[in-house]
Amino acid sequence: MLSNILTISVLATKKISITPYVIDRIKKAMKKEEIQIWDWQRILLGNAPWEFMLEIALRTIIIYLALVIIMRLLGKRMNAQLTITELAVMIMLGGIVSVPMQIPERGLVHGIIVLICVLFLQRGINWLAFKYRKAELITQGDLQVLVTDGVLDRNEMAKASLSREQLFANLRAGNIQHLGQVKRVYLEADGEFSIYKQPEPKPGLSVLPEKDSELHRAEPRAEDVCACLQCGQVEPKGKAQNTVCPHCGCGDWTYAVNKN
């Protein structure tokens, strides 16, 4: 009791607004002697009575139904790969619905109003992105060309914070063995990779993992050309010896996988 009085006095001294709600929360604050390590009712239920469990169930059902309706109105995109704005909305929804479901002092109407506000905000952003290309680029970003005719664009990869091995892993998932099979690789605005293959494959840098030496030895190697180890630029062996890559400036060369 004395500690509660001192707390209220300190807040008043610092000219902090003390509402009846703040005073009530201070009074209900647990004291050290009230904490029992084996108090399972407090651990599992907190200070709420058993009856509040029924209210939580009811609150959860209402918020769940409201959330389903809001998600339905947000559109099918919320069920697919998310853009930046859609991911932000998903994170916000989790924070919005948790408070009304669990805190008895908070009504459900406040949470539902916030859900409706998020709905109109997201719909408004989508309308602007549909109407104006610049708004779309600002809110959702643009695609990036990572591979052009079998050569990595290391500048674009750096902008996307994407390592070579991360890109190669996605190429292997697309059944690509070497860069000579690739016409274009796009990193879409939603983070997905789009891979377009060459109509006629040409020699290129292997995308197999370096540690898998058995598969590397089994790859068919081009005899007259070699590939830059960093970007995959293919040059004649005689021209590449003792020189740097004309595309990225790297001086390390390796074998090029023969076209399949």
Q: What is the C-level CATH assignment of the largest domain? A: Alpha Beta
What name goes with the CATH superfamily of the largest domain?
Answer: bsu07140 like domains
- Mean pLDDT comes to 78
Helical content (DSSP H or I, runs of 4+): 40-55%
Indicate the overall shape: elongated
Succession of helices and strands: HHHHHHHEEHHEEHEEHE
Overview of the structural elements:
- This protein has 260 residues and is of the alpha+beta class.
- It has 3 domains: 1-35, no CATH class; 47-135, no CATH class; 144-257, bsu07140 like domains (CRO Repressor), CATH 3.30.240.20.
- Helices cover 49% and strands 13% of the residues.
- A 4-stranded antiparallel beta sheet has the order 2-1-3-4. Strands 6-5-7 form a 3-stranded antiparallel beta sheet.
- Helix 4 (51-74) packs antiparallel against helix 5 (84-102).
Summarize the structure.
This protein has 260 residues and is an alpha+beta fold. It contains eleven helices and seven strands. The protein folds into three domains: 1-35, no CATH class; 47-135, no CATH class; 144-257, 2-Layer Sandwich (CRO Repressor).
